[in-house]
Amino acid sequence: MSICKHMRFRLWPPLVILLQVFVAISAKEKRKCPGGLCIPPELCRPVSVNVYDEVHLEFFSSDECRRRNLKCCPYERIVRAPDTEAPDENEMVCAARNNQGVGKLVYHDKSKAKYGEFPWMAFVYTLQADYEIYLCGGTLIQSKVVLTIAHCVEGKQPNQLRIRFGEWDLEDMVEIYPPQDRAVHKMIIHPHFYNDLLQNDIAILFIDEHVWFTEVVGTVCLPPQNENFDNRRCVFSGWGEDINGRNSSILKRTKLPIVPRGQCQKALRKQLNDRYFQLHEGFLCAGGESGKDACKGDGGSPLVCRIPQAENQYYLAGIVAFGAECGAHGVPGVYVNVPYYRDWIDGEIAKMYHVDIFVN
């Protein structure tokens, strides 16, 4: 656990506006639906309702969306997140990774993420006096729902937890869009979580208010139940230490291969000197390449895999759980196997919101 006291400066308001305009203009050349997302019309807030109760739905040009049943809705009018059903790869409405980042906020280090690159990244923390104490990473999966690891929040009350979205640099407030902070309304730890072995190490955090979807805040896609990502190269992001034990104030990223279960179990048995070690089905492994790994402080952070045929959208494949040795060759890190828990996640969200999670 590390303590981060934010000494943040704020940009002069007119400069913020100019930067936001610049981002919108520069994005037009690179993105479909600039300034918004292609989503079903019912997920977009109407512009107005007149005295005759006629709803005026105004969208950007319909040509901006490849599929006719989707409309380009401005970010500020997206008020409902995608369905809780397994996502249809042909009609994906979760956020896309911003490979080039947003604006000109660039850190010249390939191990660091660009600003806004991973819109689903969440920063879970608690407050003590004037200090923000970082607890773990998290992942936004719906407009009011975050996934993280159980051993990060076990023993804490929901009112002790807060989550920040749109964060990038923990030391300086240089973000173009102001980060969004939310309180945790309720948390659900998996009923079979076993702390000694970290089995079923997953928790769902429900926040008190919907987040506002922007270019730098959006949901990741959840994979179908029991989806297999073996041998895929995926990407992890987090604010934990690097392989040299140095804290990272700027969000870092690392590409890692998903290691098949049998191969991972064999490697961990050797590393742990325990020939009877059994890797629980609720885990998957990634990494094993020298100098590339999630490390201390990265617990709860996402491991995402690109969805084939989708427009740069990603599945949440894993959540950082534990590791035997950070960045060691042949020793993969261990992650919560999100596809294994998909049905449980859907069930808990349905119970929490009486099936319709999106009613304000």
TrEMBL record:
UniProt domain Peptidase S1: residue ranges: 101-350
PROSITE patterns according to UniProt: TRYPSIN_DOM (PS50240)
Gene3D superfamilies, per database record: Trypsin-like serine proteases
GO molecular function, one term: serine-type endopeptidase activity
Keywords: Disulfide bond, Hydrolase, Protease, Secreted, Signal
Secretion signal, residue range per the UniProt entry: 1-27
The keyword Secreted belongs to this UniProt entry's keyword annotation: yes
Gene Ontology biological process terms in this record: proteolysis
Compartment(s) where it occurs, according to its Swiss-Prot or TrEMBL record: Secreted
Superkingdom per UniProt: Eukaryota
GO cellular component, one term: extracellular region
Coiled coil: none
InterPro entries named among the record's database cross-references: Peptidase_S1_PA (IPR009003), Peptidase_S1_PA_chymotrypsin (IPR043504), Peptidase_S1A (IPR001314), Trypsin_dom (IPR001254)
Family: Belongs to the peptidase S1 family. CLIP subfamily.
Protein name: Phenoloxidase-activating factor 2
Lineage: Eukaryota, Metazoa, Ecdysozoa, Arthropoda, Hexapoda
